[in-house]
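Hi V.,

You were right to ask for the full record rather than a summary. Here it is.
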Amino acid sequence: MIQYLFLYFARFPKREGVKAMFTNGQSTLGAYQNLIDALDALPDNPLLPEIDNYVYGQDFDELKMRVERLFGSWLYADYGEFQFYETGRGSIGCRQQVAVTVAEKVTDRADMVERMIISDRMLHAINTLYAQLMADSDAGRTPWLDHKPVEEAQIVPFVAPELKSYGWTLLINAQATDSLGTNDLRRALRRQDNPIL
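Predicted structure:
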């Protein structure tokens, strides 16, 4: 799921800004090269070509370190805890909070008008991302996200002086029926002969 979301949001920024996250270039983890190959298989044209860079993760300190080295605009996808609930159909649902931020770095000399222009540009970008997310949900291309939660999303201002960045954050409660496959795993484990010792 985490790698799937990484690739989903990697479609939006410029490809070189995504590949810049692979600072080691290679890894003993097989999934590392698999992700590079999956990125190479994505369409050449990013969905938000005005976004230069990509940041993905859960750690604010890592975000800060990466953004400090960036120039221009960036997209940050942050994933949260998983919550399970009964669907009433003999299965379970899974809900996860996902926050997607688009922001642009500003210089120390930027005045209020420049910040307003950047904010307006980033609002257009996050709204385009939101529209794409809804379109993908309508077309059944987001198995991790049912349609209703998409309609209940929020867009909130993102002002981070410590990151020298201004933009907007899209907040989604990503909800879908058993998106982690927990119910299938439970059934498989139930069939095994595991006597209690």
